[in-house]
Description:
- The chain is mostly helical.
- It is built from 20 helices and no strands.
- Helix 1 crosses helix 2 (45-57), helix 8 (140-149) crosses helix 10 and helix 12 (208-217) packs across helix 14.
- Residues 1-15 have low confidence and may be disordered.
Amino acid sequence: MSAFATPALPGLSRQRPLSRKAKAAIVVQFLLQEGAEVPLSALPEDLQAELTQQLGAMRYVDRETLRTVMDEFAEELDGIGLRFPGGLAGALNALEGKVNPTLTRRIRKETGARRFGDPWERVGALSLERLVAFAEAESIEVAAVLISKLEVSKAAALLGRLPGDRARRITYAVSMTTNVTPEAVERIGASMLAQIDEEPARAFKTTPVDRVGAILNYSTALTRDDVLEGLDEQDQDFANAVRRAIFTFANIPDRLEPLDVPKITRDVDQAVLVTAFAGATAPADRAAVDFILSNMSKRLAETLREEIADKGAVDTASAEEAMSQIIAAIRDMAANEEIALKTPKDE
Length: 347
């Protein structure tokens, strides 16, 4: 019998060779049977349909046929030297973040090339601020689908940022999503991505308030106070927003959770802590030192107090540099979601 005889295929002779579709079905069935993850959803829908029909038409193959097909499959894999993404949409996906985003948007718009895969993966990766904007702008029903597709923690954070009445209406609308079809959910996700792609490219990823706040975070106290005073004269609302974005050493008691203090002291060198604490002379800075010392282990706190006493006076520049390192460590941990900073209170 030929190595590619197919007694399992209805209507085919025992000597008829297997088609490429039949071989593909054998490979897929073997991989699935072995428990492998086969990302068939990445295939175009017409190919998924053909593969499903082919699997449904087959019954069994003998061991020799299976071995021959898998050997051929392995040889083809070994012979592949380079694989391209396939199609313009695949090329654009592969080059995302590596070429000019304005060019990418223009090509997608001119050619109609769409991203493949699950649109909700990209929606779920959006910032909380962007998701809040969607939840506020879209209908209650669409917002209910949105929070249903997000991770539970992110959905909870999103609801917490919405006005109470709207959050309650969206939550209730989730109860009416039982009969929503997968196609409708995919269309909603694709529509959100289309809105994002239609937005003009921005030169800066962060808002002016965040940029100015970040700069002043690393400025000296004298420079920071002078700039804020000038902003008060020009635009008091903007100045107040910048104040809320600034996170200085003195803000630690208001912004840092007590339980997160040990994480900070583990990430910051002890010599830096001693320099910052010894140089903290302003009342607000002293309050921050007391907050940190009271929320760490008693043994470490006693050790630091002894080293602070031995350190003696510290010049202002060295103290501010050490405080900046502590603030930088806190911000890095917050950016990596290792800790969550509390929202600053309005002045």
